[in-house]
Amino acid sequence: MRFISIFLSVFIFTACSQKEEKIPVDLTRKGFSYYPAGELAPVTSGQGRKGDNYVYAPGIRFPIESAPAYLNSQVYGVGGYLGPKGSLCSETNYAYPWHDNYCEKRSKYNMPLCSMGTGHQGVDIRTATCEKKKYYAVAVENGVITSIGTYTVQLRGISGRTYRYLHLDSATLKVKRGQNLRRGQRIGLVSNNMGSTPTSIHLHFDMKQTIKIGNSSKTVFVPPYTSLVEAYKRLLQGHP
Amino acid sequence: MRTSFLRTLFFMLLANSILNAGGILDIKWPELNQAQQKAVASYPKVLSEGIKEVRLPVYLSSSYVDDQNMIVVSNKDFYSISFLLEGATLLFEGDRTYQEVVSVKNSEFQKIVQKLKPVEFSKSEEVMIAQFNRHGANYSISVECEKPQTDKRCTEEAFIRGLYGNIILVGGKR
């Protein structure tokens, strides 16, 4: 019986994912649509983790306080340093559907869960409009701020998972080291801060957790995309 | 179609093999010799008080153990000790928890485990990181620079290798 159930699950899941690969999914009535996990754009931007729809961080809150937000590539999007010419504020960048960018090409960043062995360790998210210091990044779960660097803020959730928020405006941060946060509490304003060399206006968000296998364990950056899709749907539906 | 099916099946099996059961790793405690025990007693209060509840071995670079300006965030399962240097932030972390269990038969994670090194140096968003596993717990050292493109502490590995090279055990509660 269990075998039949597993077989049917696989069959149905496969049928669904075949459909998903052709058109972005719109499960809300607010225009939100997204490509499946691992479908990077353009295809030359790297090999995503296609088919991994596992929700590594179930129930998290979306890391930007308000919708809309747009998850897509900073590097390969319009105005990105490897993208089509144009303004970083192009409307194309501020539109659905979402595109995963976990595992996007980054030659220096070790990534055991990316097929190339290196890649983007999280995802980049644009806020509603191309304006810095206007939209708040918030805690995705209850936790404590463990570190604040020049351009990173690190939250350790009660789950033990570590979340990094990059490029927030450091002068207006709402948190300090050691501060306990509630889920949804403001951390800081999304900006373009990367120390002395500013980046584009966006939030880089990543999630690190420890995976145990036999007597060994390894702390890795896990795919955030599916967890964020679920979180964003909840945000759009009014119960973030 | 066939490739897609196999890919989906692979990740279905992966998801199935992840039991989503977090917990505490087994710590194999090292023995402290007399000299180490004496040294532990002399550390600044901010350190000894900050890590008094931590139930895993705590490591810190010997160059920084006496720095009174360290900031310690901890509970029984983890610690995070940071230092604000001139133009950079230095962070030492240790954690005894895990969030997922993967079956030993999972081929992807088998490969990851086979490739495990005693220490791994890498970059993460221009932050220089050393990651290692000792006594069953997971540790990292990170250096984040105000000028990540030009500061040698973030462009070359020498600084972080030096930090890793002189880490010492500074405490932890069994």
TrEMBL record, chain A:
UniProt domain M23ase beta-sheet core: residue ranges: 119-209
Species in which this protein is naturally found: uncultured Sulfurovum sp
InterPro entries associated with the record: Cell_wall_metabolism_enzyme, Dup_hybrid_motif, M23ase_b-sheet_dom
Organism domain of life: Bacteria
Molecular function terms, GO-annotated: metalloendopeptidase activity
Name of this protein: M23ase beta-sheet core domain-containing protein
From TrEMBL, chain B:
Signal peptide segment: 1-21
Keywords per UniProt: Signal
Protein known as: Uncharacterized protein
Species for this entry: uncultured Sulfurovum sp
